[in-house]
Amino acid sequence: MKVLVLNCGSSSIKYKLYDMAGEKVLAQGGVERIGLDEAFIKVKLDNGESKKIMADLPTHKEGVALVFKVLLDPEIGSLKSVDEIDAVGHRIVQGGDLFEKSCLVTPEVEVGIESLIDLAPVHNAGHLRGIRAVGTLMPNVPQVVVFDNAFHSTMPDYAYLYAVPYELYKKYHVRRYGFHSTSHRYVSHRVCEFLGEDITKKRIITCHIGNGASMAAVKYGKVIDTSMGLTPLAGLMMGSRSGDIDPSAVTYLMDKLGKAPQEMADFLNKESGMLGITGISSDMREIEAAEAAGDERAILGMKMYSYRIKKYIGAYAAAMGGVDIIVWTAGVGENQASLRITACEGLDFLGIKMDAERNNCRGVEKVISADDSKVKVVLIPTDEEIVIARDTRDLVEAKK
């Protein structure tokens, strides 16, 4: 079975084509600037290089059609016919409390996703455009949706509810949903496979640390808490997102800066976090270089960043009655060795002891804690796309 995985944003489409017989990646790339000038597709070639192709892409339909065209290209493509694609899987950011697991696309599912646009206006609208574009171009190919909050749906109500009038939850669905759940799901299961452990017997803290960052407490295979909330703004300090902040500080700043609600949301999402504190960048590589050069605000930003991760490790260990495994993943978590050391410093009382030499690595599956550490600290590169591809295959095959 060949499965095409799509992640459609408001003006972009990331894609990856799998041959599920060996879970081999046949093609991958991304379409950018849909509906804008100078739209293009960037294709990753077999030799590791990329090829950029400019195109006129007024809508997602043309964007998806371009993906198909590239897949069929005799020089850089990997298919002879689009009929070789057996199914298409989509990442959906917000499933709200309507969807607790992956499912086949039906008219009713589309209506459900559309009803949640208010909770993720940019993302869900883009996902729907992608689903409908595929439906128009390939009406007989089954499609599957995998929700970015689904793995977190096992959280108990006392963990996901906010302390606002209960009627607001019932009427407006205001609650903690969490995100990155496909990544948290993958690495929590994969780390147990890697270590030869049974996930139903382990207490795991998963640290998905990228430009967007979140953590989850996975107790015996089920999420009991996660750091992001109704939106991806809550929780950890991130590249350009503030993370946790006093709500009254938000209204205070709105008054002082004269910002409307959406302007303030944009400010906290795009101008805050590490970018706001350091004044340098939202890119941790640039900030790490500035920290090494002695930049005081870069040093401050890194202290704030690692401190918040450490606080969540302590909180989730308390919530689960201890911790057996800590997993680091995503762009920063997989590649910034110094952060992993700093965030785990002083946690000996929890049984966490790092090995600096083992930790001096990036992007590999590896135990990075000391031999005498009671808690296994492990680096596991994430693979959200393969989770989507597997769910797509399983649901399509189950329907046959």
Automatic annotation (TrEMBL):
Superkingdom field: Bacteria
Pathway in which the depicted protein is active: Metabolic intermediate biosynthesis; acetyl-CoA biosynthesis; acetyl-CoA from acetate: step 1/2
Binding site for Mg(2+): 7, 384
Keyword Cytoplasm set for record: yes
GO biological process: acetate metabolic process; acetyl-CoA biosynthetic process
Alphabetized GO MF terms: acetate kinase activity; ATP binding; magnesium ion binding
Cleavable signal peptide: none
Known role: Catalyzes the formation of acetyl phosphate from acetate and ATP. Can also catalyze the reverse reaction.
Record's protein name: Acetate kinase
Gene that this sequence comes from: ackA
